[in-house]
Amino acid sequence: MVYQSCRPEDFEALVTRHENRLYRTALAVMGNVSDAEDAVQEAFLRAYEKAPEFESEEHEKAWLIRVTVNLCKSRLRAPWRKRTEPLLTSYPAAEPEQGELLRHVLTLPSKYRAVIHLFYYEGYSVKDIAGLTGQKESTLRSLLTRARQKLRSVLKEDDYESI
Questions:
Q1: Banded model confidence at residue 82, pLDDT cuts 50, 70, 90
Q2: Contact present, 129 and 115 (Cβ < 8 Å)
Q3: How far apart, in whole angstroms, are the C-alpha atoms of residue 84 and residue 70?
């Protein structure tokens, strides 16, 4: 069965289904609210204008995440971009207890934030993330390992500072 979700009458349902996921993903990559909102808005615009016919809701979700990640990467590469905005003070965490950990995740460089978010918060495997980002699986495993090490060292520092 072919799943077509971007007809005008279905577009509102598509946005409702995916807006939070795409926003969290874009925020993890971009590090600030305004750029994340712009990337998500552009991703939905692309979906409305030229989305393929989706085979399933999983295909739809994967396509939208890939478009969002690619748009974020393009924005980060733009020569006019200056990283002067402070990082987000609050992150849309699923549970309040996750807030502290998410603040630490947001301090990581963009390449680590993206892989951590897609792996732990969106539940994608390394193979799936490779398909979404266009990177090799071995590269993503290395990024994931380095991101975990960085988080571990930051969390240990916080434990010592609180004593």
A1: low
A2: yes
A3: 22
